[in-house]
Amino acid sequence: MSRKSGKKDKKKSRNEDEYSEIEEIRDIVAAMEDGLVEGDGEEATPGENNRDILKAIISLKSGLYKKIDGVQTTITEVRKEIQECTGRLAHAEKRISDAEDNVNGLISKVSTLESTVKTLSDKVEDLECRSRRNNVRLVGLPEKAEGLDTVTFLEKWLPEALGMESRETLVIERAHRIGTLSNNDSRSARPRTLIMKFLNFKDKERVLKAARIKRNVLYNNEQVRLHPDLSAGVHKMQRDYDDVRKKLRDKDPTLSKRRLR
What we know:
Layout: H1 3-40, H2 48-131, E1 135-139, H3 150-162, E2 172-177, E3 194-198, H4 201-214, E4 217-219, E5 222-228, H5 232-239, H6 242-251
Antiparallel strand pairs: 1-3, 1-5, 2-3, 4-5
C-alpha cells in the first residue's frame, strides 16, 4: 500500500470517529433536553441540578460545534482536492486529445511520404536501368585475359567468339571489371565480372542475340557467359520467378538447354 493511500485511510477513519462522537453527543444532548423538559413540568423550582445540566448542555453544544467545524474543514479540503483532481484530469484529457490529433496528422504525413518514396524509388530504378541498357556483363573470362586494352580486346574477340560476320564491327565505349581482385592467384579463383558499354544499343542487342544462338561461348576452351547489365532491383524480381523457371524445366527437360529469362 502506498503512503498516499495510507494517509487517505487514516483520514477516513478519523472522520468516521468524529462522526460517531458527534452522534453520541447529539444523543446525550437530546436525552438531557428531554430530562430538562420533564423536570420543568414538576412543581419543584430549578436548583443546582438544573444549572449543572444547563452548563453540561452548553459545554456539549460548544464541543459539538467544534466537531462540526472540524468536519466542515475536512469536507472543504476534500472538495479542494477533488477540484484539483478534476482540473488535472481535464488537462490530461486535453493533452491526450491534442496528442491524438498530432498522431492522426503524422499518420497522414507518413502515408504521403511513403507514397512519395515509392514513386521516387521507381523513378530511380527506371533511370538506373536506362543508364545500363547499353551494357553487357561478361562472366567467366579469366583475369588479365583482356591485357592492358580491354576495349580493343573485346572489339576483336567478341565477333570471333560469337561467330559474327567480320563486317559487323562493334564499337565499345568503355569496359572494366567490377569488384576487388582476389588475393588467391590460383586458376581456381573465380574471375571478376567484366562490364562493357556499347556505343550503340543495336550493337548490344546483336551481341546478346549472337550469344543466344551460339549457346556455348568459349575462351581458350573455358565457357563464358554474356548477360544484360541489370539493376539489383530487377535481379531481385527475376529471382522471385526461380520457382516458376524450375517448374518449367521439370515439365520440359529441353528447356534446361536454353536460358529462361
